């Protein structure tokens, strides 16, 4: 882990030195969609180095979407918000008795007598499997460093690659541990139980039933579609898309702001599949409880159900205030953290409704 962190730091330093530099969005940047929503988002950014922005707000009064320096219907990487959707698929399949929470991973993936074979699906859905965040072998560390230097994706895995990584992994079950590897395994296990693959599972059980027009999983960086917003880091350096099927369940979904608003509306009115995923059942950190993928926190007296995401070229936040019936989706082309911006916009949406 020490070597991996050193590689990441070195890569970040070199990448910064190589970055071409580009201007971040501001109040004069071109806006599409709702101008007041865009203005509120830019104000909350407070000069943060974001180079394109997509935002959606859902309240009982309606839905607003906007983009800044990006097409209104441009698709973005939602990153680890994908885990929240995987959690919904898990709970939907539990409700339909296709799987059970205590079902062992080894019954669905070929893990032999590996320690992870005895991990349950519920443990995977709540980051309690003991699996590490990622496979940190030598080749994975080399790929991580190369991605920092060359602005490429550190993910290029097949389903079999993920199974192999899980089979080789040591478990540390002393405490909850956020795991991309664990959620990638969960997605493929769910697909195996359904007799399909993970992209088809997302399409058939989420995207099509809820009419989520742009929600999809690219086959790779060359399969992003014409509406893809390019990802960049905080310095404006173009980044290759993090698009691969192996880790799609952990962070490989793309969508536009309108589609994420449509999903938010279904979550708020309770019509989305797998709603039980949003109900917290375990402690995760000192501040957060966890359902299936979804985190639940207190923010200024309010209960917020949320997940964030980060890739090489995007930072994303998706949050719901279920009591007030409000939601915000925010995604920026940057590597700067946007969680506080998303939280502030959600708080403002609630204030606006209350008034």
Q: What oligomeric arrangement do these chains adopt?
A: single chain
- So, the CATH homologous superfamily? DD-peptidase/beta-lactamase superfamily
What does the radius of gyration come to?
19 Å
Structural class, judged by helices and strands? Answer: alpha+beta
Task: Write structural notes for this entry.
There is one protein chain. With 355 residues, this protein is an alpha+beta fold. It has one domain (21-130, 158-354): DD-peptidase/beta-lactamase superfamily (Beta-lactamase). It contains eleven helices and 13 strands. The protein has helices at 2-18, 35-45, 81-95, 121-125, 138-150, 159-168, 180-194, 198-207, 248-251, 257-269, 339-354; strands at 31-33, 53-59, 62-68, 76-77, 231-232, 238-239, 254-255, 282-283, 288-290, 295-299, 302-310, 315-321, 326-332. The strands form three sheets. Strands 1-3-2-13-12-11-10-9-8 form a nine-stranded antiparallel beta sheet, sandwiched between helices. Strands 4-7 form a two-stranded antiparallel sheet. α2 (35-45) packs across α11 (339-354). The chain is globular. It starts with a helix and ends with a helix.
Summarize the structure.
The protein has helices at residues 2-18, 35-45, 81-95, 121-125, 138-150, 159-168, 180-194, 198-207, 248-251, 257-269, 339-354, and strands spanning 31-33, 53-59, 62-68, 76-77, 231-232, 238-239, 254-255, 282-283, 288-290, 295-299, 302-310, 315-321, 326-332. The chain has 355 residues and is an alpha+beta fold.
SSE map:
Layout: H1 2-18, E1 31-33, H2 35-45, E2 53-59, E3 62-68, E4 76-77, H3 81-95, H4 121-125, H5 138-150, H6 159-168, H7 180-194, H8 198-207, E5 231-232, E6 238-239, H9 248-251, E7 254-255, H10 257-269, E8 282-283, E9 288-290, E10 295-299, E11 302-310, E12 315-321, E13 326-332, H11 339-354
Antiparallel strand pairs: 1-3, 2-3, 2-13, 4-7, 5-6, 8-9, 9-10, 10-11, 11-12, 12-13
């Amino acid at each position: 882990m020490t070597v991996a962190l050193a590689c990441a730091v070195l890569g970040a330093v070199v990448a910064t030195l190589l970055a071409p530099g580009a201007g971040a969005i501001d109040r004069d940047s071109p806006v599409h969609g709702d101008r007041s929503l865009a203005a509120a988002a830019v104000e909350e950014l407070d000069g943060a180095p974001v180079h394109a922005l997509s935002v959606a707000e859902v309240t009982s009064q309606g839905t607003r979407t906007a983009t800044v320096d990006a097409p209104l219907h441009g698709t973005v990487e939602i990153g680890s918000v994908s885990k929240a959707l995987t959690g919904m698929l898990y709970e939907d399949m539990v409700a339909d008795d296709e799987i059970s929470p205590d079902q062992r991973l080894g019954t669905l993936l070929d893990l032999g007598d590996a320690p992870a074979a005895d991990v349950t699906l519920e443990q995977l859905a709540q980051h309690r499997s003991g699996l590490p965040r990622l496979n940190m072998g030598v080749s994975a560390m080399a790929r991580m460093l190369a991605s920092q230097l060359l602005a490429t994706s550190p993910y290029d895995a097949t389903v079999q690659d993920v199974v192999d990584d899980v089979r080789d992994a040591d478990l540390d079950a002393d405490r909850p541990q956020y795991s991309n590897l664990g959620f990638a395994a969960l997605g493929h296990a769910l697909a195996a139980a359904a007799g399909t693959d993970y992209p088809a599972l997302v399409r058939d059980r989420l995207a099509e039933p809820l009419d989520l027009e742009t929600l999809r999983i690219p086959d790779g960086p060359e399969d992003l579609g014409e509406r893809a917003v390019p990802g960049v880091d905080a310095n404006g350096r173009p980044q290759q898309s993090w698009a691969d099927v192996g880790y799609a369940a952990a962070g490989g979904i793309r969508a536009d702001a309108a589609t994420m608003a449509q999903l938010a509306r279904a979550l708020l009115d309770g019509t989305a599949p797998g709603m039980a995923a949003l109900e917290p059942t375990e402690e995760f950190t000192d501040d957060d409880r966890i359902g299936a993928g979804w985190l639940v926190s207190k923010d200024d007296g309010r209960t917020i159900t949320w997940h964030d995401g980060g890739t090489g070229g995007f930072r994303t936040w998706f949050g719901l205030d279920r009591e007030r019936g409000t939601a915000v989706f925010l995604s920026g082309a940057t590597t700067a953290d946007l969680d506080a911006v998303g939280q502030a916009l959600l708080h403002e949406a609630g204030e606006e409704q209350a008034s």
